[in-house]
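Let's see one such:

===
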Amino acid sequence: MRILFITSTRIGDAVLSTGVIDHLMRAHPDARFTIAVGRVAEGVFSRMPQLDRLIPIEKKRFGLHWLGLWASVAFTRWDLVVDLRGSAIAWLLLAKRRAVMRGGRRAGHRLLHIAATLGLSPAPRPVAWFGPAEAARAEALLPAGGPVLALGPTANWVRKVWPADRFLTLARLLTGPGGALEGARIAVLGGPGTQEREMAAVVLSGLPGAIDLVGALDLPEAAAVLARCALFVGNDSGLMHLSAATGTPTVGLFGPTPAAEYAPVGACALAVLAKGPPGAAPMGALPATRVAEQAAALLARADREQAA
């Protein structure tokens, strides 16, 4: 069975689509997948089982990237084409079945929109794939020896970034005496590039003992590292979604973006919203004490569920 799956250019949306792929793999263990995805997000899928081919999509003028994708897949007869980009390409291919997601903004979580494309309810949770090499590197970076608090102080939009001093206060509240992760090591994660490094700089300078992983990991390595952490707290970002997909307790911080559409989804995940209009609140309106309280409650819940 051959399945073509066209997904997002963004990491977060790509991670949210992994649950549907995992469902298809379980339903069709003999299927081989071709994944078409934005280049920045291709690492989300590079270690997935049953992967036959990964096609990175790079946006071009006049929509020529769609022509390039069509030329890459047009001479295969597909058993199923899933298009989460809402393009016309699915209708221009030989396919037994097509599932095309309607474009445009609408109410409800993005995960529900993705699942509805294939008529799935409840929506399958996202998953994170990595291999033995990534697991070994994560173990080397975060060797056993106590819990690790992962912080994600970066984002693709400066207005989504929680003030650096709040991250520093949060770290003290959680890892200091009496904290929910008293004595925990701290790892700071972020993507590649100057902008991400600048966003994380104040947090790193305020936590001189932290493990600096900003720009140091590809996406499968980041998934393996996050899977070893006791807790992730970070801005609304691809890393936040990747953390939730690993099953690590994850707290996503939201202000000017709608948590109703993009809250982290996982076995143990929640969104903490800044005070103000939903999807339009400033990140500065979110106090560190409130995030620490929510994080402690999430960890307590994870402990109860693990003990049950």
